[in-house]
Write a structure and sequence with these properties.
The chain is built from 13 helices and twelve strands. The protein has two domains: 183 residues, no CATH class; 173 residues, no CATH class. Helix content is 56%, strand content 18%. The longest helix is centred in the last third of the chain and has 44 residues.
Length: 402
């Protein structure tokens, strides 16, 4: 009963000094709002990166060419042209768990169709490409193994190319000329949009890798090899077996390739996103601490202003612990009310930024709880010293205070 009475007195005191209460709670409102908004935007960015990495494909392993050393000059990563179609064929034939393999040839070409032209990326791939990249067709069909064997003049295009060259038309069956080679469009991929590097994934033309090598790029080596493992659990084993097989084919020479799997890329991106979210949350928590300091300052002023009131309470029988509880209750109430309003402010701010600027946001119930719990703890810590000071006042001195 004593606790209820003390709480009622504390809340009545807060209501009596509305302006001071609002100013004291303002720091907590801004602090909690900043925590919620910052963490929501950080989580949104992390979720976007993870979804884009997942969009690269399912259980994908990529083999890149290594660096080239010539006359003492060391080229950068990927400068060696050491991967061959035979490497890809052997991987598909001999590595258990490699359920999809595609040699890649990357090139850029000025292509023409329908009286229009467009500069785009031309990728030589195998028929396994849609499964490896988990990329479905919007219309038409993908090219076949027969098209690869015959270096057929066929292609599958991305949505951007379709919009630029065949606006308002059905592209299926139309012809696109690349290096004056007519390519018949047999399919259109569904739209994927931009990736985290601001690259339009739909701005591309896919052709059989043999067509690219013999007719368009005229290359003898391939740019890289993408492999699909049967499951996430087999990725590391498949990656290790690929490395052993390629090293065996090179008869023990120094590896001229680099193998990376999707999990490594995802872990690196997740680590970077986690660091960014933690940094944003840390910066926002500084605002929370500043809000707590503001509450302490206001409570100290309140103790000074209400010295006579405290003296009267102590004179009529209140104990020091009752006064301590009253001021602690006021501080915690300020923190909780400020924290609750701050949550609404943080949600509103993150949603506005997402709507106005297209920045992804993802609300976290865990961080909401942490913010409210943190605000309550800050209230207790910031209110304890003023409350202790008030509870230790001498009633006679307090009554004399002017």
């Amino acid at each position: 009963m004593r606790i209820v009475t003390t709480s009622v007195i504390a809340l009545r005191a807060l209501r009596r000094n509305k302006l001071r209460t609002i100013l004291a709670a303002l720091g907590m409102i801004i602090g909690v709002g900043a925590v919620i908004a910052m963490v929501s935007m950080g989580n949104g960015a992390k979720s976007q990166v993870e979804s884009q990495i997942a969009g690269l494909g399912e259980n994908m392993i990529t083999i890149f060419p290594g660096s080239l050393t010539s006359g003492g000059m060391r080229g950068g990563w990927g400068s060696a042209s050491s991967l061959t179609v035979e490497d890809a064929e052997v991987i598909k034939r001999e590595v258990v768990g490699a359920i999809g393999v595609s040699p890649e040839i990357r090139d850029r070409q000025q292509v023409m169709a329908n009286g229009l032209n467009w500069n785009t990326q031309v990728l030589g791939e195998s028929p396994d490409f849609p499964d490896i990249r988990a990329w479905k067709l919007a219309s038409g069909d993908f090219f076949t193994e027969a098209d690869v064997r015959t270096s057929a003049k066929v292609c599958v295009i991305g949505k951007t190319v379709a919009d630029q060259l065949f606006a308002g038309m059905d592209p299926i069956g139309q012809a696109i000329r690349a290096r004056n080679i007519p390519l018949r469009v047999v399919g259109v991929m569904i739209a994927k949009g931009f990736n985290s590097g601001a690259v339009d994934q739909d701005d591309l033309i896919l052709v059989p890798y043999t067509t690219s090598m013999k007719r368009i790029s005229k290359r003898h080596n391939i740019t890289d090899i993408i492999v699909q493992a049967s499951s996430q659990n087999t990725m590391e084993r498949v990656q290790r077996d690929i490395g052993d097989l390629l090293q065996q084919r090179r008869q023990g020479r120094e590896p001229d390739y680099t193998i990376r799997n999707q999990l490594e890329i995802a872990e690196a991106a997740a680590s970077a996103s986690k660091t960014m979210t933690g940094l944003l949350g840390g910066i926002a928590f500084v605002s929370l601490i500043v809000g707590g300091i503001g509450i302490m300052n206001i409570m100290l002023v309140s103790v000074t202003e209400r010295t006579r009131e405290i003296g009267i309470r102590l004179a009529v029988g209140a104990h020091g612990k009752d006064v301590l509880m009253q001021f602690l209750t006021e501080a915690v109430a300020l923190s909780l009310v400020g924290g609750s309003i701050g949550i609404l402010l943080g949600i509103g701010a993150s949603e506005y930024v997402s709507w106005a600027y297209g920045w992804p946001s993802q609300l976290s119930p865990l961080w909401m709880g942490i913010a409210v719990g943190g605000s309550a703890l800050v209230g207790i810590f910031s209110g304890f010293y003023p409350a202790l000071k008030a509870s230790q006042l001498d009633p006679i001195d307090a009554l004399r205070y002017e």
